[in-house]
Amino acid sequence: MSSGIEELVVQPPQSATWKVHLDRSMWVGGVRGLMLQALHPLAMRGVWQNSNFQEDPFGRLRRTADFVGRVTFGSPEEAAEIGRRVRGIHRALRIHDPDTGRTHRVDDPELLLWVHCAEVSSYLEVVRRGGLRLTEREADRYLWEQRESATYVGLHREDVPGSCAEMDAYFKRLRSDLRVTEEAAATVRFLMWPRLPAELRLLSAGKPAYFPFGALCYYTLPDWARRLYGALPEVPRATVTAALRAFRMTMNSLPEPVHDHAFMPATREMLRASRERLGAAGYDVSKGLRGLTDPRRWPTALAA
């Protein structure tokens, strides 16, 4: 059974990646990641000049969730296909830097690495602070496993931080390159008060209730990032942690079919197919994918 697990999903239920990516505080981590990414001027301009982010920042979050889902819970074929698609899109895009007058490729490895590190470090930081119990070894293993996801966008594994120490060292090296551009400041405003995609416009009446979520994402940023932005007055760290834990508890209590409606239809279909494949392989999927973080729901040969 274990020898064929790679044929079912890219990352098996036994991985640290499943523990992190199935935690619902990932939504906070995703928005935090976008806010952090925006501090790199060239990376931010790449998004600004080549997407509809200004009109639909929430849409970008959902597309990121689709990519993360496919390279975690999808089949190897699904992961390879979305990787080819993403690399193809990036290959054709360029960034104009008004500060230097130069043109850069969107798929510049340094830019891809920044986006990857801002994203996965945000996921890991938020879920741990939100209350997911991960040992230091498991946290390192998560980043090590995420080197594989980086290959789908065109990076080489050996160029990607694979431990918490390596990730910390990477951010220290990059700090001097980061600043708040007009685009970055606008991005934070958008992310705290987004325009909803068409299929979610029925939720517009409750949009004011979104602001506390956007603010929570902002307050989970590293201290140095918040100092750069200066977008909101500071609040006690303990208050932010308590709010994050409350959000996590609430979201994790939602039934999986209800929660999955936040994803794009194609993402929901991919998750359904993943449950079917794993169920056919002997996993107990009666509690959904989240239930598979419990070894008692694995096939006997794996749980032993």
Automatic annotation (TrEMBL):
Pfam family, one: MPAB_Lcp_cat
InterPro entries in the cross-refs: MPAB/Lcp_cat_dom
Domain of life: Bacteria
Annotated ranges, domain ER-bound oxygenase mpaB/mpaB'/Rubber oxygenase catalytic: 18-249
GO molecular function: oxidoreductase activity
Entry protein name: DUF2236 domain-containing protein
